[in-house]
Amino acid sequence: MKYVTEYRDAALVKGVIEEIRRTVTRPWTIMEICGGQTHSIVRHGIDQLLPPEIELVHGPGCPVCVTPLELIDKALEIASQPNVIFCSYGDMLRVPGSGHDLFSVKAQGGDVRVVYSPLDAVTLAQKNPDKQVVFFAIGFETTAPPNVMSVLQAQRLGLTNYSVLVSHVRVPPAVKAILGSPHNRVQGFLLAGHVCAIMGYWEYPPLVDEFKIPMAVTGFEPLDIVQGILTAVQLLEAGKVEVVNAYQRAVTFDGLKPAQATIDKVFMECDRTWRGIGMIPMSGWCLRPEFDQFNAEKRFNVGDIQTKESPLCIAGQILQGLKKPHDCSAFGKECTTENPLGATMVSSEGACAAYYKYK
């Protein structure tokens, strides 16, 4: 398939890695921001093929992983109520809350369903007018357009039994928080290509100017990733501080303006707590007041939720690039994909799950 097979060509990948080897002259620490990139890196052994001067650290770009614990507990409370059909993507059913997960709610008789699109949840609301249908709207900028479209579709259909539990987060504030930390060790960034496909990369030049760190917009296939790494290394070695688009077949500077306008119509920026990291100002999206009738938190009055994280889990440090999964004392012991302590071991984009599966 075009744009797939050629980007998985081992000979081309090895050629770019050799170019990296010829280019690098000193140690560099580069963060890939996206969990999908992390899995591709570990799955294909890219981190082991790179010259020893290049260290890749893994960022918080896994939407399941950073969904705050209090929102998981709110989801559990809502899903446990009678006459509720709670809809979510599959990964979210296994993310542990303070005490249990959505699979446990389902096992106890709750109507918890896996959907493949928020519009599937809207259809369920149409077919079940006697039920309250709630969709767990999580994700980064990538999944925001379909999620807001579900709200607009429910409004158009006049549905009064559809609502969304919103846990959207935004990448640029997270990048700023990482770079602004006194413990930061990241010297260059690989930006998430799918986020930039929607939003463009116009938000990043101010961050590059502020923190003097180069960034490369990067895709997800092996060749995409090594080309992104090569771009970042070339910028670092030359002392250039700029954003370079190494994923031009999918990303433009401005992004998809119609999608951005639709998001702005339904969502507004808000403070958001990231699981394991804490509150990052204006790093999330929430529903505008004019869409309050679709706000599941207000509909079900779940504002007062107390949470408790596992004391063994170091997911927050992993998500900030400060530690690797194998640095955790519980990794592969108390914490496995079958019995996860934290979301980074659950999600298909989680760093711990990648290390556990492939390493």
- Can you tell me the overall shape? globular
Radius of gyration: 21 Å
Helix percent reads 25-40%
**Alpha-beta classification:** alpha/beta
Terminal Cα span: 29 Å
The CATH class assignment of the largest domain is Alpha Beta
Structure, explained:
With 359 residues, this protein is an alpha/beta fold. It folds into 2 domains: 1-308, HypD, alpha/beta domain 2 (Rossmann fold, 3-Layer(aba) Sandwich), CATH 3.40.50; 315-358, no CATH class. Helix content is 39%, strand content 19%. It contains 16 helices and 11 strands. The chain has helices at residues 10-23, 35-43, 46-49, 63-66, 69-79, 102-107, 118-127, 144-157, 171-180, 193-199, 205-211, 222-238, 257-266, 296-300, 315-319, 351-358; strands at residues 28-34, 54-61, 84-88, 111-114, 132-139, 162-169, 188-192, 215-218, 243-245, 267-274, 278-287. It has a 6-stranded mixed beta sheet with strand order 4-3-5-6-11-10, sandwiched between helices. β5, α8 (144-157) and β6 form a beta-alpha-beta unit. α1 (10-23) packs parallel to α12 (222-238), α2 packs parallel to α16 and α8 crosses α13.
